[in-house]
Amino acid sequence: MPPPYDPDRHGPRRVVGPGWQSRVADLVRRVPRGAVTTYGDVATALGRANVARHVGYALAALPAGSDVPWWRVVAAGGRLSLPGAAARDQQRRLAAEGVAVANGRVVAFTARRHRFDDRAPR
DNA sequence: GGTTTGACCATAA
DNA sequence: CTTATGGCCAAAC
């Protein structure tokens, strides 16, 4: 039996059905070092352009120590939309791989934006 | 059932 | 550049 879900420790569990979490994770894993993508791009690549928010929820639920580079996912326009201290953590992680962030925005966002060439099945 | 809450987004002013 | 608004979806309450 899995332990009971604890929103305080795992964040909001807002998914778009079974498999959503892992499909988001698999896609984000493909974003290479030094590149970024957006919640909307991930949602679109998964065939659900209207559930960008749930991409964020899925990432928020990742276990600590996950191999998923969640910090490479930013909001539209290259903005960092994480609450409070988490945004600084994300900025630090991005900087560690050469992605500069200034005033809450990824510098040269368009150039660093990753394109999901092959789209995923619905 | 209804209301609130978000790691969102596009658009308008 | 900024804020405001409406739309969106699913879980929590």
The termini sit apart by: 30 Å
Task: State the secondary-structure class.
Answer: mainly alpha
Radius of gyration: 14 Å
Record field, number of beta strands: 4
Number of helices: 6
Write the element-wise H/E pattern from the N-terminal end onward. HHEHHEHEEH
Q: Which percent range fits the helix content?
A: 25-40%
Can you summarize the main beta sheet?
2 strands, parallel
Principal-axis shape equals: globular
Mean residue pLDDT: 87
Strand content: 5-15%
Low-confidence stretches: 1-5
How are strands sequenced across the largest beta sheet?
Answer: 1-2
Structure write-up:
- With 122 residues, the chain is mostly helical.
- The chain contains six helices and four strands; from the N terminus they run H-H-E-H-H-E-H-E-E-H.
- Mean pLDDT is 87; it is low at 1-5.
- The structure holds a DNA duplex (13 and 13 nucleotides).
Topology:
Blueprint: H1 7-10, H2 20-29, E1 37-38, H3 39-45, H4 52-60, E2 73-74, H5 85-96, E3 101-102, E4 105-106, H6 109-112
Parallel strand pairs: 1-2
Antiparallel strand pairs: 3-4
Helix pairs in contact: 3-4
The structure holds a DNA duplex (13 and 13 nucleotides).
Summarize the structure.
The protein is mainly alpha-helical and 122 residues long.
